[in-house]
Write a structure and sequence with these properties.
Distance between the termini: 29 Å
Number of domains: 2
Mean pLDDT: 81
Order of helices and strands: HHHHHH
Helix content: 55-70%
Largest sheet: none
Radius of gyration: 15 Å
Number of strands: 0
Shape: elongated
Structural class: mainly alpha
CATH superfamily of the largest domain: lambda repressor-like DNA-binding domains
Number of helices: 6
CATH architecture of the largest domain: Orthogonal Bundle
Low-confidence stretches: none
CATH class of the largest domain: Mainly Alpha
């Protein structure tokens, strides 16, 4: 998958992009486990359409639902998220490292937290 820069102009747009990233990860891991959307949705107690909206980034997913997915997929919860620094703040070198995961990380961090140290 080719990574391209996307200019994000608001905090809400950054959060939408992160939700879309998480949804893509849910779909990717579901596909790796060879599980149908119907099977996963049933296990989670939701309908397939709702799962589809999560995977497409249209619906937000709760922490509890992510935990259930991690349990179902037998993977750590952090597998659904973009990489982050292990420190309490992000330096420019941290951002450069994180951009290797996804080029939008810099925009997300700057919009969600207003400043990047």
């Amino acid at each position: 998958m080719k990574k391209t820069a996307v200019k994000i102009t608001t905090r809400e747009e950054a959060e939408d992009e992160i939700n879309a990233f998480i949804g893509r990860k849910v779909r990717e891991i579901r596909d790796l486990r060879n599980l149908s959307a119907e099977t996963v949705a049933t296990e989670l107690g939701m309908d397939r359409t709702n799962l589809s909206h999560i995977e497409n980034g249209r619906n937000k997913i709760t922490a509890v639902m992510l935990w259930k997915l991690a349990t179902l997929f037998n993977c750590p919860v952090d597998r659904f998220f973009p990489k982050t620094a292990e420190k309490h703040s992000l330096s420019h070198s941290d951002i450069d490292l994180l951009k290797k995961e996804d080029v939008r990380v810099e925009d997300w961090a700057s919009r969600c937290f207003k400043t990047v140290k």
